Amino acid sequence: MRNKLKYRIIIVVGLALPLALAQAGLQKAPAPTHAEVDGLALTPPMGWYPWNTFGEEPQNERLIKEIVDALVSSGLKEAGYTYIGPDEGICFSRGSDGKLTTNRERYPSGLRGLGDYIHGKGLRYALYTDAGTKTCSKAMPGTKGYEFEDMKTFADWRADYIKIDWCNAEGMDIVEAYSLLARAQRAAGRPVVHSLCSWGDGYPWRWAGAIGHMWRTTSDICAPGRADWDRAVRIAFANEKLSRFAGPGRWNDPDMMVVGMPGLTEVQNRSLFSLWCMMAAPLMAGNDLRAMDKSTVDILTNLEAIGIDQDPLGAQGHVVWNNGNLSLWAGKPIFDGSAAVLVLYLGKSRARRWISWEEVGFAAEDELYVRNIWTHETSGPHSGGIEVTVGPDGVVFLRISKTNEFPVPPVLVADRTRVMLHSNGSGPEELKGTLAITNRGSSDLPLWRVDPETVPSWLSVEVIKNSRTQTFINTASTAGLKKGSYHAVVRADNVEPISGKPMSSFYYDVDLELNNIEFINVPLNRGAPYDKDQDK
Ligand code: GLA
Questions:
Q1: Which pLDDT tens digit goes with each residue over 133-190?
Q2: What is the CB neighbour count within 10 angstroms for residue 426?
C-alpha cells in the first residue's frame, strides 16, 4: 500500500512538474524556427553583398545597379544568386519625426526605387542595419528604440533580406535585442531573411534558429578591398566546429565570400568556394562582379558545387580528421543518398592519401561511384575507398554514391519578382501579369501551391507547368475598387521531388495601380489601399 502510494505520488509529480514548469515558462519547449513560420531560407541564401570589396565609401545607387546588371549578365543569377543590395553605404538617416529617410544624394531613386529595380530583374532586395544605437561606422542610425518603426520602413522599401549588425550595442541583451527585431519584422508583415551579424558574440547558434535564418559565426573575413587566405581558412575551421547547429532555415554564416577578390590564386578561390559549399554556408559573393575573370565565373557558377550547398537535407559538413596540413571533411549526406567529401591540403608540396569508405560514412564493402565536382568526371564503381592527390592550398571535392547518377537539387531562377498592373480605364476590367520561375536543377518540380491566404479578393493566381518552367498568371479584377494603389505579397510552396523535403517558399509582389478611375458603380468593399508614398 505504502509503495503504491509512493508510486502514485511520483507519477503525479512526474506529470505535474513539467506542466507547471512549462506554464511558468521555465521548461524549454522546442521553439519553431523562424523558417518554419515563413518558409524562407530552407537552403542557404545566395546573393551578393558589397562590403568585402567596397567597404562603405563607394556604395551608391549606381554602383549597386551596375553590380545587379553584372550579376544577371555574368550568369550568376542563372546559378541561383538572388539576394543583393547595399551594406553599410550611408543609405539612410533618421528624420526629426523618428522615421528613416533615404539618402537621396547617394540613392536618388530612393531605397524603395532601388528595391523595385532589383525586383524587376527577378532578384531579391537585401538591406543592412544594426541592433544598437548606430551602425559600425557610426554613420547610420541603428534600430535601438525604433525597432518596429524601422522594420516597417524596411518592409515599405520592400526588403526581402535584412542583415542586422551588432555594433554600438553596449549593455544590450543580445537575445532580447534580436528577438525584439524578429517580432518587429513579423509585425511589419513582410517575410524577410533575418541575417544576424554578431560575429559569434552571444553564441547565436545556440538560440538564433528560433528568431532568424542565419548568423555570423566569426569576425570579418577581410578588410575591405583585399582577401586574406589565412584568415579565410581560419574562419572555415572555426565555422566547421558548429556543424551540429545548422539545418534547413538555420545556417552558420562564415561571412560573405572572398572568392574572386585580389589576394587569392585560382586554386585558393576554388578551395574556399568548395569549403563554403561543404559547410552549407550562405553563398553571398563579395567580389566585384563587374570585373570577373572566366575562372572566377566558372567557380561561382559551378552548379554541381552549388547543388551540394543547396542540398535540401541542409547538413553542414565537418572535419573528420586533420593532421595539420591535410584534413578530411565529410558528414554531408545529400538528398539522393549520396554524400559530399572534401580533402583540403595546406602544405607546400603534394599530398597523396587513401580515403576509405568507412571514413566518409559508407560501409567498407560498398561499391561506389565517385563524381569529381571540379572536373565533372565520374569514375567507379570503386571498392573500399579511393586514393586522392591534392596540391598546395587545393581541395579534392567529391560526391560519392551507390549509383552513377548525380542529380542537382532545384536551383530557382525567376524572370522577375514583382508584377505590376495598371489601369486607366473608366470601368471594371481584368488585368493580367505573368511571372515565370525556371528550375535549373535536374528534376521536374511538382506544381507550386499558392497560399490562398496571401491572395487578396481583387487577385486570382493560376500556375501553369511547362517542362522546367512554371508560370504564375496573376489576374486582377478592378471591379469594386476605386482609384488608388493595391499591393499583395503572394506565397507559393513546393517540395523537392526525390526527398520530399519542403523547398524555400517563393514570395513575389503584385502591385495594382488604378489611375483614372474616379467612380465605379460597385460598392467599395475589397482590398486594402496601399500607400506608395512612404519612401519620401
Ligand atoms: C561589420 C560586419 C561587416 C560589415 C561592416 C559594416 O564589421 O561584420 O560585414 O557589415 O560591419 O560596417
A1: 999 999 999 999 999 999 999 999 999 999 999 999 999 999 999 999 999 999 999 9
A2: 11
For residue 34, pLDDT over 90 is answered with no
Contact 165 CB / ligand 1 (< 6 Å): yes
Tell me the pLDDT tens digit for each residue of 291-304: 999 999 999 999 99
Burial of 172: CB neighbours in 10 Å, binned 0-12, 13-18, 19+: middle
Q: Is 197 in the pocket of ligand 1 (CB under 6 A)?
A: yes
Atom 4 of ligand 1, residue of closest alpha carbon: 51
Report the residue count for the chain. Answer: 536
Q: State yes or no: pLDDT of 22 exceeds 70.
A: no
Instruction: Give the DSSP H or E segment for 112.
Output: helix 110-120
Rounded-to-integer distance, Cα 386 and Cα 376, Å:
17
Please state the φ and ψ torsions of residue 11, each to the nearest 5 degrees.
Answer: -65, -45
How remote is the CA of residue 436 from the centroid of ligand 1, in Å?
Answer: 35
| Ligand 1 contacts CB of residue 136 (under 6 A) | yes
Q: From the CA of 181, how far away is ligand 1's center (Å)?
A: 18
Say how far apart CA 242 and CA 246 lie, in whole Å: 7
SS3 of residue 46 by DSSP? strand
Cα distance between residue 487 and residue 128, in whole Å: 24
- Active-site residue, selected from the candidate residues 87, 116, 165, 336: 165
Position 90 scores a pLDDT of 94
Distance CA 308, CA 261 (A): 23
Reply yes or no on whether 366 is catalytic: no
The response to whether residue 166 sits with its C-beta less than 6 Å from ligand 1 reads no
Residue whose CA is at the smallest distance from ligand 1 atom 11: 136
Average pLDDT, the chain: 92
Could you report the per-residue pLDDT of 317-376, keeping only the tens digit for each?
Answer: 999 999 999 999 999 999 999 999 999 999 999 999 999 999 999 999 999 999 999 999
Give the span between the Cα atoms of 429 and 419, in whole angstroms: 17
pLDDT tens digit sequence for 193-232:
999 999 999 999 999 999 999 999 999 999 999 999 999 9
Cα 255 to ligand 1 centroid, rounded to whole Å: 10
Q: What distance separates the 2 farthest-apart alpha carbons in the chain?
A: 87
Q: Which residues share a beta bridge with 294?
A: none
CA of 227 to the centre of ligand 1 (A): 15
Mutate to test the pocket of ligand 1, among 59, 136, 215, 253 (most ligand atoms within 8 A of CB): 136
| Percentage of residues in the chain having pLDDT higher than 70 | 90
Q: How much of the chain is helix, strand and coil, in % rounded to 5?
A: 25, 30, 45
- In this prediction, residue 237 has a pLDDT band, given cuts at 50, 70 and 90, of very high
3-state secondary structure of 397: strand
Distance 314 CA to ligand 1 centre (A): 26
For residue 298, indicate whether it is catalytic. no
Q: Is 220 in the pocket of ligand 1 (CB under 6 A)?
A: yes
